[in-house]
Amino acid sequence: MKPATAKTEVKEKKERYFEATGGRKTAVARARIYTKGTGIMVNGKDYKDYFKINTQQINVAAPLDLLKLEERTRVTAKVSGGGLNAQAQSVRNAIAKALVKFNADFKKRLRRAGFITRDSRMVERKKYGLKKARRAPQWQKR
Fold it and tell me: Which of 81, 107, 87, 86 is nearest to 96 (CA)?
């Protein structure tokens, strides 16, 4: 008879996070805010490596800077579609919405800063007979 071996399975406690989605034009971002750790990761890279332009980096970190939470929270974001500026603004929108889920008291300050509202402006569609949405072909007299 084999001796009974006590298997001790260590169940890792899942890290708690708050998730939200944000958008701008055709860019869509999903952000998760963790209560432990620091830093912002976008698509598996540090946000300063993903967004090279300083204004885009400031855009992404703005909600955390406003609430002074950059040293107490870790953010991971996945973003796709659109250009880099739209992606930065969609990540900002997603982080702000996730912060509201984390603490509802933040909503008033974030809304006043304009981070909660999704910017609904989109590119106007091209019309037939025109070169772009409104640009007509050059008129010729003869």
Answer: 107
Question: What's the CATH number of domain 17-113, 3.20.20.10, 3.30.230.10, 1.10.10.10, 3.20.20.70?
Answer: 3.30.230.10
* DSSP per-residue letters across 39-100: EEEETTEEHHHH--SHHHHHHHHHHHHHHT-TTT-EEEEEEESS-HHHHHHHHHHHHHHHHH
Distance in angstroms (rounded) separating the CA atoms of residues 128 and 122: 19
The backbone region for 25, taken as left when phi is positive above 0, alpha when psi lies in -120 to 50, beta otherwise, is: left
pTM for this one? 0.86
Sequence ranges of the domains in the chain: 17-113
pLDDT band at 71 (very low <50, low <70, confident <90, very high): very high
Model pLDDT, residue 3: 61
